């Protein structure tokens, strides 16, 4: 088969468009001049690279106090939102898969709607709800908002996994004397685990980098990492620390993705042995 140079060039262009910005984030985490954002000094000489931004992160430098506080807040909210979304999303997906009725059609529409709604509309709607209920915006409003839009992604991911699920396995477990809880935790849950992990990773990623919805429902002193970074990009001399911290987040995400692949591969091997 003759190689198409145009296709190769287009593939290279797409890969460069996707990954060169990420590479620049990693590179700029070693920049020595945080004011001019340059690897060169005032005389035009190459100033080398530095790891001081990573050192400031790991040593808890006071100059990065607000940045690190927003980072840990984002991790906390993303972690809690992921756990809650996985629990709610799993139960919702099982209900949508097991029962078919007009009420379930409405349920499916309600779950699917946040996927197609603009983030700004979701943010405004949630803000109006919190104001109408007299709830002060802060940690809990951000957490509830993140769970609201993350659940839909988890449900759709698990529903895709349930498409290949053989319900006769559950019936066989019941015939052998297993109860509903034992069947769920020892039969259904292990088979659904790759889908739950994939949905959880997606929910964690969406939660930790959300800006639009969070900017509507956060209160004073509850800036998450993305909202804080967006406010400091134009005037902070410690901006390279953001690139360094983003690189660490990238490595952490790659580790999570690798672990999910291992879990999925192990589950596939178990299913083949059965």
The residue fraction in helices comes out at over 70%
The ordered H/E elements are: HHHHHHHHHHH
Radius of gyration, in angstroms, nearest whole number:
23 Å
Task: Write down the CATH topology of the domain at 67-232.
Answer: MetI-like fold
Rounded mean pLDDT is 83
Major β-sheet annotation:
none
CATH class of the domain at 67-232: Mainly Alpha
Structural class: mainly alpha
Poorly predicted runs of 5 or more residues: none
Structural shape: globular
Number of helices: 11
Let me know the number of strands: 0
Give the DSSP E fraction (strand runs of 2 or more residues): under 5%
| N- to C-terminal distance | 40 Å
CATH architecture of the domain at 67-232: Orthogonal Bundle
CATH superfamily of the domain at 67-232: MetI-like
Structural summary, described in words:
The chain is mostly helical and 274 residues long. The protein has a domain at 67-232: MetI-like (MetI-like fold, Orthogonal Bundle). Helices cover 75% and strands 0% of the residues. It is built from 11 helices and no strands. The protein has helices at 5-28, 52-59, 65-98, 102-116, 119-132, 139-162, 168-175, 180-208, 212-217, 225-232, 239-273. The two termini are 40 Å apart.
Short summary:
The chain is mainly α. The chain has 11 helices and no strands.
Task: Give the SSE layout.
Elements: H1 5-28, H2 52-59, H3 65-98, H4 102-116, H5 119-132, H6 139-162, H7 168-175, H8 180-208, H9 212-217, H10 225-232, H11 239-273
Helix pairs in contact: 1-11, 2-11, 3-6, 3-8, 3-10, 4-6, 6-8, 7-8, 8-11
């Amino acid at each position: 088969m003759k190689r198409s140079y145009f296709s190769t060039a287009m593939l290279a262009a797409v890969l460069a468009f996707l990954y060169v910005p990420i590479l620049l984030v990693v590179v700029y985490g070693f920049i020595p001049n945080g004011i001019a954002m340059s690897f060169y000094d005032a005389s035009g000489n190459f100033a080398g690279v530095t790891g001081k931004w990573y050192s400031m992160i790991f040593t808890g430098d006071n100059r990065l106090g607000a940045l690190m506080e927003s980072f840990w807040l984002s991790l906390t909210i993303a972690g809690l939102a992921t756990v809650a979304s996985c629990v709610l999303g799993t139960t919702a997906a099982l209900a949508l898969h097991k029962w078919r009725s007009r009420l379930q059609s409405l349920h499916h529409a309600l779950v699917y709607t946040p996927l197609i709604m603009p983030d700004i509309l979701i943010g405004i709607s949630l803000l109006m709800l919190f104001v109408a209920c007299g709830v002060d915006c802060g940690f809990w409003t951000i957490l509830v908002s993140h769970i609201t839009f993350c659940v839909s992604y988890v449900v759709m991911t698990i529903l895709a996994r349930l498409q290949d699920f053989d319900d006769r396995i559950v019936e066989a477990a019941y015939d052998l004397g297993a109860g509903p809880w034992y069947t769920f935790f020892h039969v259904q849950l292990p088979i659904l685990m790759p889908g739950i992990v994939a949905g959880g990773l997606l929910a964690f990623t969406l939660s930790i980098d959300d800006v639009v919805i969070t900017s509507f429902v956060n209160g004073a002193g509850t800036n998450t990492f993305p909202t804080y970074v967006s406010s400091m990009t134009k005037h902070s001399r410690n901006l390279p620390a953001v690139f360094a911290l983003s690189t660490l987040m990238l490595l952490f995400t790659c580790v999570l993705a690798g672990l999910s692949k291992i879990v999925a591969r192990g589950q596939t091997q178990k299913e083949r042995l059965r």
